[in-house]
Design goal:
The chain is α/β, with parallel strands linked by helices. The chain has a single domain, classed as TIM Barrel (Alpha-Beta Barrel). The chain is built from 13 helices and 8 strands. Strands 1-2-3-4-5-6-7-8 form an 8-stranded parallel beta barrel, surrounded by 8 helices. β1, α2 and β2 form a beta-alpha-beta unit. α6 runs parallel beside α8. The relative contact order is 0.17.
């Protein structure tokens, strides 16, 4: 009898991502804004036989209820079926959304020590040369532990305080878009494994009244994405996945986008159900699960990706 292939507990996430990139399979990455969200993310991915990442970013800890990278890791490893998930450290900025310098290196080291499978350094608010130097340092550190690194180039706006310029103005002018020539150089000089790009996507707000509002229905410049894919040849990442029109996401999958970050829509789903149900955590978890099912089955159409990604 032919041996059934599967994603094993120890299959490196870098290997899984490369296969997804080659086969044009999207890997969803769900941000944990509150610790109880981990359970429905893990259970729903397993139920739908879909491989995905559980991830936490610095704003999830500092502005919402993820509490700490350690508490997220502890809960993840207590619950996880490692056939269907890996744990990712999202958005460790060098300069944060408030313009403050961040002591980023201890945070990266902490995640590595805690068993995170991959990490992200975000030097996108730095000049290109400095972003390259910082990212290269993180790559050298993380690769010693066989941990892949994600970095960002260009400006995926939305986390900053204050109003954004009109979206149509941002999109039509390409303000903040990842530059193709810079992306090529960045990947070559840093050795980064995955690159987060700006092609019309925006983050959800994380402060003030705006954090509770629905996101703009963003579009993606697919022609620009094609050029970045050709120039870099590595898995590309789409931040600000909540609210992007499904048509554009399906096109992006065919043109290098391998990982999509989903934070705002599941966070707001959790918060709204808590408010509606008098803080019933189980009901909020069920609402998150239903939202994830809708994204995976209806919008991204990736149900069953685990079977195609078996390595």
């Amino acid at each position: 009898m032919e041996k059934i292939k599967m994603i094993r507990d120890n299959t490196p996430v870098a290997e899984i991502m490369i296969k997804a990139y080659q086969q044009r399979i999207l890997i969803p990455a769900f941000n944990v804004a509150y610790i109880p969200m981990i359970l429905p993310i893990i259970e729903t991915l397993k139920q739908l036989r879909t491989f995905g990442l559980v991830e936490v970013a610095r704003p999830d800890v500092e502005k919402f209820g993820a509490r700490s990278f350690k508490e997220v890791a502890d809960e993840y490893f207590r619950l996880a079926d490692r056939s269907f998930t890996r744990l990712h450290l999202d958005h460790i900025p060098v300069i944060d959304e408030d313009g403050n310098k961040v002591n980023w290196e201890p945070l990266i080291r902490e995640a590595i020590d805690l068993g995170y499978d991959s990490v992200m350094i975000d030097g996108s608010r730095l000049p290109l040369e400095e972003n390259i130097l910082v990212t290269k340092k993180v790559v050298e550190l993380s690769h010693q532990h066989n941990i892949p690194v994600e970095a960002e180039l260009g400006a995926v706006l939305g986390h900053e305080k204050g109003p954004l310029p009109p979206y149509e103005e941002l999109f039509s002018t390409g303000k903040g878009f990842t530059k193709v020539d810079e992306a090529k150089r960045f990947v070559e000089e840093t050795g980064v494994d995955w690159l987060s790009v700006a092609i019309g996507n925006i983050h959800g707000a994380i402060s003030g009244a705006a954090k509770s509002r629905d996101k703009i229905q963003a579009r993606l410049n697919i022609e620009h994405l094609k050029k970045i894919k050709e120039a870099t040849g590595i898995p590309l990442v789409l931040h600000g996945g909540s609210g992007i029109q499904p048509y554009y996401i399906l096109q992006a999958i065919q043109n290098g986008i391998t990982k999509i970050n989903i934070g705002t829509t599941i966070r707001q789903t959790y918060e709204r159900e808590l408010a509606k149900s008098n803080n019933n955590i189980k009901k909020a978890q069920m609402a998150v699960s239903e939202k994830i099912k809708d994204l995976i089955k209806e919008e991204y159409k990736i149900e069953g990706s685990w079977d195609r990604l078996a390595v």
